[in-house]
Amino acid sequence: MPQATSPRLPVGVLVAIGMMLFALFFGAGNLIFPAALGQQAGASMWPAAAGFLITGVGLPLAGVVAMGISGARDLQALSSRVHPWFGVAFTVALYLTIGPLFAIPRTGSVAFELGLTYWLPEQGRKPWEIGFLLVFFGLALWLALSPGRLVDRIGRVLTPLLLLAMAVLIVATFVAPMGVPMAPQDNYQSGPFLQGFLAGYETMDALAALVFGILVLQAVRQAGIAEVGSVARATFTAGLVAAVLLAVVYVCIARMGAMSNEVLGLRENGAQVLSGVAAHYYGAWGAALLGVMVFLACMTTAVGLIAACATYFHRLFPRLGYRLLACLFALASFLVASMGLNAILSAAVPVLVFLYPLTIVLVVLAFGQHLFGWGAPVWRWAMGATVLAALLHALQGSALMPEALQGVLANIPGQAVGMGWMWFALVGLAIGLLHWLASGRRPLAAG
Q1: What is the C-alpha to C-alpha distance for residues 390 and 383, in angstroms, rounded to an integer?
Q2: How far is CA 236 from CA 52, 59, 331, in A?
Q3: What would the 3-class secondary structure string for 78-111 be?
Q4: What is the dihedral of CA 60, 66, 72, 77, to 10 degrees?
Q5: How far is CA 220 from the centre of its chain?
Q6: For 361, phi and psi rounded to 5 degrees?
Q7: How far apart are CA 427 and CA 436, in angstroms?
Q8: pLDDT tens digits for 335-370?
Q9: Which of these, 33, 89, 124, 229, has the minimum number of CB atoms within 10 Å of its CB?
Q10: Is residue 23 classed as helix, strand or coil in its secondary structure?
């Protein structure tokens, strides 16, 4: 009797899911950060871009794959392997942070700032902003109300439009280069790779990967794939499609920024770089083209995050329907976005700095359990040490921390650039492994 083979998705379906994932990741910030990196790095753009791709592309891909291989039904189930209470607290904090408290409002605010302000007078913009945000989040809500159609609406419609708009601008930079890269600035002079590596954190896509990974899993299962190994393979393939697209676009935008100094001079941020490049090649039409790019990039991310948040909180509170929750998240995002982009950015940074190390360690633990069958002690020691490090980093410089402890933390390698938590995590992982080995290597059941 012939052995049954695991079902496989058609290539076209996998590509569509991968393009959906690319569009969900690719928000306006993903346009801005590589453009700023290119300008700052100048002649050192290539090593800087290599570092950026590791954290801006590699970590998000690892997060999506980690969800696929973990066997966990969602992020809460995965993080509950540390402890059930940690699973709920971490998942709620992450969803709220990349949801209505920061990331979703930012999509609307950035879309307005880069898409419409070129056409508006300096004074009296607030009514226009409120009106734009109402339309933006109304459209995002409509697209998110049918999560089963995300692949069709985003993967097959919005993503090709986004790629086409970007291609129009990127191709022009190859046909008629603006100039030659200038000398690198600031930290890019001595360590372009490390600086690019750290700049990749600014995308915050590693946080979103554990959320968007659930949408990929849902899309794969809705296409008829249920066996764990087949789901993992399909998730990896779709993630790889998104990663390749992200890498190509990031490199092209970084190159664009590196070659713009001669004409534009050094700009304060990536938004100004993109605006200057678009105006250089296409004038007023360039501003319109940039507006289309930013609108599509922000809209796809907003739709995915509203859908993801509503799906999770519907599971957490079954009495609240998905559609009601989607409406509530869209309304909350509109209200927060109306406060202005600067207020959103300043309020969210401390929370993001705290959550990012926890997310990275969670991904590492998921891979470790898949490969080595790590038990509960490994998860708890590694994550406990990372939580401690993240708390200390958040308190560093405040009156709540004694001066003696401030001095100790300052001597930890990498602490000045926010990477000192890695040593805490490694020590916690080592203690957890010893504990696990001493307790008889008891496996941890997948949740």
Answers
A1: 10
A2: 21, 13, 34
A3: HHCCCCHHHHHHHHHHHHHHCCCCCHHHHHHHHH
A4: -60
A5: 21
A6: -65, -35
A7: 14
A8: 999 988 777 767 776 777 788 899 999 999 999 988
A9: 124
A10: helix
Output DSSP code: residue 153: I
User: pLDDT tens digits for 167-208?
Assistant: 888 899 999 988 888 888 888 888 899 888 888 877 778 888
What's the pTM value of the predicted model, to 2 decimals?
A: 0.82
What is the rounded average pLDDT for all residues in the chain?
Answer: 84
Nearest-angstrom CA–CA distance, 340 and 109 = 7
Tell me phi and psi for residue 283, to 5 degrees: 60, -135
Q: Residue 410 has which token pair? A: 């300052």
Q: Which residues, at least 6 apart from 336, have a Cβ–Cβ distance to it below 8 Å? A: 100, 101, 102, 105, 344
User: Per the structure block, which two tokens stand in for 416?
Assistant: 């000045």
Tokens 């790779």 label which residue? 193
Length of the chain: 447
Residue 179 DSSP SS3: coil
Q: Where does residue 220 rank: exposed (0-12), middle (13-18), buried (19+ CB within 10 A)?
A: buried
Q: Which two tokens stand for residue 411?
A: 């001597």
